[in-house]
Amino acid sequence: MSxxxxxxKTILLILIFLTLGTVISIFIGFRxxxxxxxxxxxxxxxxxxxxxENLHQTATRDGKQEWTLDAKSAxxxxxxxxxxxxxEKLSIVFYLENQNNAHLTADHGVLENDTSNFTVTGxxxxxxxxxxxxxxxxxxxxxxxxxxTTLPADxxxxxxxxxxxxxxxxxxxxxxxxxxxxxxxxxxxxxx
Length: 192
Hints:
Blueprint: H1 3-35, H2 37-44, E1 50-61, E2 64-79, E3 82-94, E4 102-112, E5 118-127, E6 131-141, E7 146-149, E8 153-157, E9 160-164, E10 166-170, E11 175-179, E12 183-186
Antiparallel strand pairs: 1-2, 2-3, 3-4, 4-5, 5-6, 6-7, 6-8, 7-10, 8-9, 9-12, 10-11
Helix pairs in contact: 1-2
């Protein structure tokens, strides 16, 4: 055999082993993914840049906690120049000056990551020791610390019940503003 023939056989043998190694690697990779398809699905779910289970996030301003968010799942997406987190099964605690913190729960939410503003939807309940607010959608303006809804909502407490088409609640002053078909009941003795 000539030297060129040996070189060709050696090159062919190397190519055969490289091809065989590549095929085995691909086979093993697919076997791993077939046993754990959630790994693949979670990484490409809904064109998300990042998917997270059990998200915990805290917003602070001037060294004070303003709110803490917990969500069963979150998908980070980029919409043009804005970054948003799509949230599922979430709860938020708003920290208030008097320690009567407000607790919010909702089925879904969208957090604007750049501004910390958000919208929550689906069985929205906001509770604190004095009252409960129920609606289908609630928005939060982080800069002004205002919660508001443009959908019908109910506020109820031990001595009161109000319903309105729109409600705005200022977290810093703890004042609520009700608009549109406001109906309510106040129970107990009231001095005017």
